Amino acid sequence: MELMKHSGFVAIIGRPNVGKSTFLNRIIGQKIAIMSDKAQTTRNKIQGIYTTTDSQVVFIDTPGIHKPQSQLGDYMVQAALSTLNDVDAVLFMVNATQKRGRGDNFIIERLKKVNQPIFLVINKIDQVQPNDLLPFVEDFRQALDFREIYPISALEGINCEELLGAVTNLLPAGPQYYPADQITDHPERFIVAELVREQVLKLTRQEVPHSVAVVTEKIQRQDQQKVLVQATIVVERSSQKGILIGRGGKMLKQIGTQARKQIELLLGDKVFLELWVKVQKDWRDRKVDLQSLGYQP
Ligand code: GDP
Ligand code: K
Ligand code: MG
């Protein structure tokens, strides 16, 4: 096997909504992790693989660390924390517009037991005055010994290349873990389901987004660059099914139209998308359901 100048695994952790998935997608240059302004958008670990001629960095996007309120929440926090033990470096991401709080301190306590280099990544600097950054940095610097500190904007791309370069240079020589053209560890059908769930997150409110899971039933390539995609949206209660379908099917149609555009970008072909909605009572608190929906420990 060919040895690369730099290769390894880098975890991105932080509270919900600080911009972890946005950063990952920016680095990879394609949407492999869905994003939204809702906490707990990301439920699984997602690897984003960045390969150049002499290096390979495998970024691991994680669910935001929060106080779990269901079996699903438990799974998500465990998924995030467990990555800390087997990576070469950690990016601890915080939001420049939010002071250090209990959620950050909880993570910092866990990070104290990590021996690998830890970068403090201060995201969303497009939203703050430069003068406010210095006290912000000072406050975090006192809390933990960071290898480096990078203020960035994942949304606008500020300082992201620089951060990528610094992390890459830190990694030791090692194997190329994935083929050069592979950008994520998840199969196409996982991302397709996530792209449908992203639209549900965007278009619904309150408890509905958190009660939804999506399963891809079929991806079938047909003639003339057309792909048939079938997916089921799983909810916890029949009232939620009603909301998702909407009056005269209007909501489901809107979800379908938006999701189809995203799936077309992913697959590079015209897509014909069929969606169903199914009730699976309280799936978020049932171990068997969690496993069958892809949230397994
Ligand atoms: P995650 O939960 O940490 O993965 O966060 P997401 O990537 O889902 O982003 C949460 C929200 O923050 C979304 O609405 C993003 O558009 C927004 N966001 C992410 N990065 C930035 C940034 O650099 N600047 C601003 N202004 N918003 C951002
Ligand atoms: K989010
Ligand atoms: Mg995320």
Kindly describe this structure.
Its main location: cytoplasm. This protein has helices at about 20-30, 70-80, 100-110, 130-145, 160-170, 190-205, 240-245, 250-265, 285-290, and strands at about 5, 5-15, 45-50, 55-60, 90-95, 120-125, 150, 175, 215-220, 225-235, 270-280. It has about 300 residues and is an alpha/beta fold. It folds into two domains: about 5-175, Rossmann fold; about 190-290, GMP Synthetase, Chain A, domain 3 (2-Layer Sandwich). Helix 6 (about 190-205) runs antiparallel to helix 8. The chain has nine helices and eleven strands. The model has no long low-confidence stretch (mean pLDDT about 95). The protein has a six-stranded mixed sheet, with helices on both faces. A three-stranded mixed sheet has the order 9-10-11. The two termini are about 30 Å apart. It binds guanosine-5'-diphosphate (GDP), potassium ion and magnesium ion. Guanosine-5'-diphosphate binds near residues 18, 22, 37, 127 and 155.
Could you say what the CATH architecture of the largest domain is? Answer: 3-Layer(aba) Sandwich
**What is the makeup of the main sheet?**
6 strands, mixed
**What count of domains describes the coordinates?**
2
Q: Give me the strand/helix succession.
A: EEHEEHEHEHEHEHEEHHEH
The outline comes out as globular
Strand portion, in percent? 15-25%
Amino- and carboxy-terminal Cα gap: 31 Å
Region (G1): 14-21
Subcellular location: Cytoplasm; Cell membrane
Pfam families: KH_2, MMR_HSR1
Protein name: GTPase Era
